[in-house]
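hi! just following up on the protien thing from before. the input was this:
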Amino acid sequence: MKKVCSLIVLLSLLFTVFVDFAHAVPVVQLFLDGEPLPSDVPPTIVNGRTLVPLRVVGEALGAEVVWRSNSLPILVARGNDRVEVQIGKQIALVNGKEFKLDVAPRLINDRAMVPFRFIGESLGAGVYYQSSPPRVYITSPTGKLGPAELEQTESGITALSFQASRAMDIASVEVSEDGQEVTVLVNNVVAEPESRELSSGQLVAYSVTPVGKNSTQIRVHLGEGAKYLLPQAALSADQLSLTISWPLGLKEASLTQSGGIEFLSFALPESVKPEVTDTTLEVEEGSSLPGYTTEAVGVRVRSGPSTDTERITTLPLNTRVDVIGVVTGWYQVRLSDGTEGWIADWLLAVETEIEEKVGVNVRKGPSTNSARLTTLYPGHKIRVLSREEGWCYVEYGAGKQGYIADWLVPLESRLVDSYIVPGLTIFFPGVSRAEQVQINLTESNHVATASWKEDESGATLALQLKKPISHRLAYTDQGWCLTFGTWLQQFDFESSQRGLKLHLALDGPSQPTAKYTAADEAIIVTIPGAALAPGIKTSLPGDGIFVSDIRAEQAGGDVRLVVSLTRPLAYHLQKNGESTWDLVIASPSLAGKIVAIDPGHGATDPGAMGTLGWNEKDYTHDIAYRLRSLLEQAGAKAVMTREIHSSAIQGPARAAIINQAGADLFISIHINSSTNTAARGIETWYYPRGDNERFARLVQDSLVAELGWPDRGIKPGRYIIVRDALTTGVMAEIGFISNRTDEALLYQSEIRQRIARALFTAAESYFEK
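and the predicted 3d structure came back as:
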């Protein structure tokens, strides 16, 4: 009984093995001209090569197969073709020439099996192998081409497709010069003649004509819009399907220049509607800060931010390292030999500089309740000696030390450098690109690189620009055009008793600049990345009072306007709209004058503190610098009684500076403050002497007119600065830092510029008496 059970178990195991083996060997199916080809021995795979039954395939292709014995060659003859193979030998003869087979023919179930690709191609048949599921496709030496099938969408017929009984070969594809006639010659197939006229979409007509014994010519006639189409013929992977299509195609793209303007043109119809996307990126790269070891006994560099990690090396006192990372209690550093490691933050002094534009307070201790030692402003260099509980212990100036809140000390932020990479993409929906379409950027001033990407939805051109530049896309007679730069379309002027205003009309955004050159006695207006519009007048006679003449010229990639003056005059360039600018040239009321500017508060006396983080001195100095720029543009000499980083200068000393400069006029700029937080508006103080009251009225009226804030009037007073300065001058209190509305307005850069402009206008009006 035990023997019987053992036999049953053994047979069961053997059956399982044979079943698994049967599943492991894939069954290869054989097809001829797309139909299954029966065979009592199916194709099999040996050493990665597929073998097929020689007699079954040969006779199916119309060949005679002669096999006398296993020891003699097997002869396969079809027409003029003679093939000889022998079982077990890798050398075969094809029309008398030796041919080495990858796998020698062999017998399987009394059938001679040979490599399918060898026997098929030797007899002029087409062969194709499909791996999943495994199939061998063989097509007759001359196949039949079926009738055309029309592929149609909402826009009409978009392609012709043909099915063949054997693998095809595209011999040639020819397109007429106007793109309307497309001729495709296909080998290895013959077709019944066919012709048809249509009126759907771009296809007008097509014809199919046999050529010789085994070729077919297909001719397609397209409509008048064929110049925008890209005819193409493609075979399927098994070469049994042919598709002729004519998608919307980009055949030509070019870059041309005119002055500072560049035109990227695409020969496409208006219906395409390309889409432009700004792809400008801010790229960040790792940076470093200098650090210096501070322990005489040596500083250990470790492999990680912990004392439990391995020691890499020990550095002597005052060794320079590059700080490349920051975590709590540790700095990541790079040594001079490139080795990276970690140093405890209290063992390293790291150099950085202040960035906060309103300045940061240095305190005696690590608390906001601790005494303020000083205020440091942007650009002031400091050394971070240690970090503890939200504070940095720093060294500043000549060995002075104190505490700054750690969120005001730029460490991590300065370990990353960022820069802008300007770019654009242009997407052409439903468009294919001809392979020869490339864009030559050798001479481009604006485009650095261009690359194409295509998918089923269309073609995309990615452009990397050399610098940000205005651009616009529009359709023209030549197709779609992407324009970089700006046209100067027109310039003219109007003149009055007070001065002249030159109007500039551009066709896009730009940032012109203006500068006076004494050598030419002219104001030069430069429009970067611009060109003179076709037909524009390049010169105008001036009014003879302020301007003698105006001429426009192309200067490389920029447009330059030379405004020749009759004498030195005040000027400023102002923007009036998205693409319009005015150069205002005023009477010479300020030219040669000395105007003193006194920013209220400074140094150890920052003035009142607002809720937005700025002290009074931050506002007054900002306005003062803006006013100085306007005065200098007008030809005046501006004298500052102090700078934002000056040491403390009291009122009498500042008045002395005004007097010693021989100033013709002075303006002291202040921001008011009050315990009454509802108080707001503008008031101007003067010392009752000479022309002070008249100038105070000019200042007050100009500020109120410009800002529209409450008018608190002009007031006589005995403030030191207005009393001790011997020239005409005033003290303007412009808004209340204690009032949230006024402070919010003062915090805006545009408002501070308008305040400076109003003070400038008052000074200009004063000298026009």
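The chain has nine helices and 64 strands.
Residues 1-24 have pLDDT under 50 and may be disordered.
cheers
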